[in-house]
Amino acid sequence: MIKKILFSFIFILISFSSISQIENRKTILLDSDWKFSLGDLKNAPFLNINDSTWETVSVPHDWAIRKPFDLNQDMQWVQVKEDGDNESKLRTGRTGGLPVFGIGWYRKTFEISESDKGKRLFIEFDGAMSEAKVYFNGELVGEWPYGYSSFSFELTRFIKFGQENLLAVKLENKPESSRWYSGAGIYRNVRLVSTNPVHIAHWGTYIITPEISSEKGTVTIQTKVLNQTQTAQKIELVTEIYNYKGEKVAINKNSNSFVGEKRFTQSLKVRNPMVWDINTPVIYRVISKVFVNKVLKDTYESAFGFRTIRFDKDKGFFLNNKRVKLQGVCLHHDLGPLGAAVNYRATQRQLEIMKEMGCNAIRTSHNPPSPELLELCDSMGFVVMVESFDEWKNGKNLNGYNRFFDKWAEKDMEAMIQRDRNHPSVIMWSIGNEIREQDEVDGKLTAQFLTDVCRREDPTRPVTAGFDKPTGALKNGLTDVVDLVGFNYKPWLYKKVHEDHPNYIIYGSETASTLSSRGVYKFPVIENKNPWYDDYQTSSYDLDYAGWASTPDTEFAMQDECKFSLGEFVWTGFDYLGEPTPYNEGTPAKSSYFGIVDLAGLKKDRFYLYQSRWSKTPVLHLLPHWNWEGKEGDTIPVFCYTNYPKVELFVNGKSMGIKEKSTDGKYEKYRLMWKDVVYQPGEIKAVAYNNKGEKVSSEVVKTSGTPANIKLTADRSTIHADGKDLCFVTVEITDKDGNLCPNAQRLLFFKIEGAGTLKALCNGDPTDLTSFASNYMKVFNGKMIAIVSSSKSIGEIKLSVSGERLSTKEIRIQNRITK
Ligand code: GAL
Q: Which residue from 367, 377, 375 is spatially nearest to 340, judged by alpha carbons?
């Protein structure tokens, strides 16, 4: 399909002379009407092939996510040393069992008008998975192997004015190139940018705030301006700062005569700056304007915040001079059933759920994130560790990043930092996760090299790494190179390392790796390292954990004891595709069990354990469910996750006693547990008391009857009619009185009508291999979600859900222009 993209000049007549002013910067999102095909298609870069039979797709696009699962797809013999494997094992589901591997081609055709001669044209990719080769009109414009990096190429010299132009992108994912689901394709946004030859460079501003007080904030802005004409010209840079109300609060003007590149450094003062903080994430905007002979040539927008960060070896992390314990989670980049394809609303929903839990920090494990994630962290108030790599030269994957490290590591680090260094949310750069060079005598040299790149590109933030092999990392000096020493799963070492190395600033870069399946409870209720159950599930009593890991409580205790620790990043906030530990070998599992929240974004019990510790919201959560037909008379332990001082448990009206958290006992410190409750159907009820002994809250879990109804709850009743916005509908099976049926595994059918489409279904069951793109799926333990996508036509969307012996339910969502 030929699309006309017009960058037409605007002709402005000025009274005494006619001056042609080249229109300002124009940015076009290339999101629709791409042609896509799989295969090694040698002629794909050239205009004269017929792509009419190719699939028409929109970008962001993940070519694998809507395909059927097949565990043959990522079956591999591999030794995962980090998991303690002594030899190679046949692993399945490691990358999610979806067809991410192979070569994929994308093509997009558009006309550039004759009148656009004289402009400069650039293509910007927020990320393409992976080994991108970009062609314009048959010529190779550039390549970028690392699928998580953002990059830009200039297209100007390849343009055919007044004719069709062809952008073609080749991507390739080699087998054994990742430890998790990478996604496949142009999975982030792509923009076409046209500018005047005199313009601000890509990621052209670097904004720092060297002084902040309540009276005044100093902002130093370095701006890279390009004059791509042949002659030196006097160029004026006008930089303006706007507050959140859109009021101009500072301005600075500077001029210089040059050709080529020039970096301007300007200092601006903002009176009474409003501080960016976790609870008040105030953003300021910078508008940079470039003039030649008083004619505006370019306008460029950036954002920043006023905030200070400080890391103290004994006292921890300070944000704006206030101690903040990092209550963090690690997040992979996939969006569960939506795959790797970036979606603003889905990212926002993930962060909303994390925020509700009291989480204040995100680690982008183990790669540079989407720009959307950081924009949302800026606006929602999270601090972020942006991480670069999961492997250096000594790879973990046969075809992993190790193949590119020597040639590309510096470029990838530069791209990451130059893109992200204005974000107030970003507080540290990570040079790597569990890199194998920890065990090498020369590992320090690489660590030093990467740290130097970080410090060169951004001296305002500390550099860190996540170490899982402290013996090697300490012996080989890698821990001496970084500013913040992160330990993966080594809580017992914090104190010892702090004593032995009093100058180290220490924290848990990866913690817990507790395993649970939402709504599944296993008996007997015991601590279980490396659990294995025949149904390939794990227990939501939150006592199952990976061999190298621990339950949350072990980490809590060490964090409580080690006041010097910056805090922790739990593995993981959300379940993710791939890495189905402990069921890695020949099992039907496709996704992780580590998440505090499942793959569908539904809360597991563990959510409330963290919430009771991290959040000020009153929490009173009982587990397990109370539907244990056949276990009448058996012992079913009851746990309560709470931040109330005391709780009394009643079973069918009979008190089981009041409990409060104890000062000792591994689990008693953080959970209330009635271990000897004898099951009879009916109800369990928690009554919470305040310190004065007054009843302040209660929570009831009832034995439900047989499934009778489908309950649908939309997260929003109106969504934006842009074809991208999403509505997440929670689907529950209830009895005739509205109680959740916690054992229901009913197959449901979904039908969508009107102004939207059914984007994906997901039940959070790691073992369910039903495609996310189906219109049917089983609920998992009574619940699942349906994700509805808006279309561009305004109107009503109707979702109907039916299932055998259940009355069909409908929900209506309005698709409107909302912004
Ligand atoms: C860590 C690793 C993570 C993930 C996790 C699972 O060793 O850094 O990427 O694999 O283990 O527990």
A: 367
Our mutation pick for probing the ligand 1 site, out of 510, 574, 584, counting the most ligand atoms within 8 A of Cβ, is 510
Whether 499 sits among the annotated catalytic residues: the reply is: no
pLDDT, tens digit (0-9, with 9 covering 90-100), for 627-679: 999 999 999 999 999 999 999 999 999 999 999 999 989 999 999 999 999 99
DSSP string, 85-150: -SS-EEE-STT-SS---EEEEEEEEEEE-GGGTT-EEEEEES--BSSEEEEETTEEEEEE--TT--
Q: What percent of the chain has pLDDT over 70?
A: 97
Ligand 1 and 579: CB distance under 6 A: yes
Rg, the chain, Cα only = 28
Query: Per residue in 309-357, pLDDT tens?
Result: 999 999 999 999 999 999 999 999 999 999 999 999 999 999 999 999 9
How far, in Å, from the CA of 570 to the mean position of ligand 1? 11
Q: Which two tokens stand for residue 134?
A: 């970009």
Point out the catalytic residue in the list 372, 434, 648, 732. Answer: 434
Q: Is the CB of residue 626 less than 8 Å from the CB of residue 682?
A: yes
Q: Which two tokens stand for residue 680?
A: 């009879």
Spatial distance between the Cα atoms of 175 and 73, rounded to a whole number of angstroms: 9
Ligand 1 within 6 A of CB of 511: no
Q: Which residues pair with 312 in a beta bridge?
A: 316
Q: Tell me the best of 94, 530, 579 to mutate to test the pocket of ligand 1, counting ligand atoms within 8 Å of each CB and taking the most.
A: 579
Q: How far apart (Å, rounded) are the C-alpha atoms in residues 472 and 534?
A: 37
114 is catalytic: no
Q: What is the DSSP letter of 377?
A: H
- What gap in Å lies between CA 702 and CA 111, rounded to an integer? 64
Distance 813 CA to ligand 1 centre (A): 39
* Residue 344 φ/ψ, nearest 5 degrees: -60, -50
Residue 421 identity: R
Q: Give the Cα separation of 196 and 300 in Å (integer).
A: 12
* Cα(411) to centroid(ligand 1), Å: 26
Verify whether ligand 1 is closer than 6 Å to residue 468 (CB atom): yes
CB contact at 8 A, 654 and 647: no
Query: With contact defined as beta carbons under 8 Å apart, do 809 and 713 qualify?
Result: no
* Local confidence band at 23 (pLDDT 50, 70, 90 cut-offs): low
Q: Which amino acid is at 418?
A: Q
SS (H, E, C) 266-287: EEEEEECCCEECCCCECCEEEE
Could you tell me the pTM of the whole model? 0.96
Query: What's the pLDDT at 708?
Result: 97
Cα distance between residue 103 and residue 112, in whole Å: 29
**Residue the block writes with tokens 């008693």:** 668
List the residue whose alpha carbon is closest to atom 7 of ligand 1: 82
Q: Which atom of ligand 1 is nearest to the CA of 548?
A: 12
Instruction: Give residue 456 CA to ligand 1 midpoint distance, Å.
Output: 29
Residue 115 is predicted with a pLDDT of 86
Distance 601 CA to ligand 1 centre (A): 20
Residue listed under structure tokens 């992390």: 317
For every residue of 190-210, DSSP letters joined together read EEEEEE-SEEEEEEEEEEEEE
Q: Is 248 helix (H, G, I), strand (E, B) or coil?
A: strand
Which residues are CB-neighbours of 454 under 8 A, at least 6 positions away? Answer: 413, 417, 429, 431, 461, 463
For 747-794, what is each residue's pLDDT tens digit? 999 999 999 999 999 999 999 999 999 999 999 999 999 999 999 999
Tokens 């103290």 — which residue? Answer: 312
Q: Kindly state if the Cβ of 178 falls inside 6 Å of ligand 1.
A: no
Ligand 1: does its nearest atom lie under 6 Å from the Cβ of 575? no
Residue 549 Cβ inside 6 Å of ligand 1? The answer reads: yes
Q: Which atom of ligand 1 is nearest to the CA of 433?
A: 8
The partner residues of 167 in beta bridges, in order of sequence, read: 108, 136
- CA–CA separation, 400 and 384 (whole Å): 25
Q: Residue 531 C-alpha to ligand 1 middle, in angstroms? A: 17
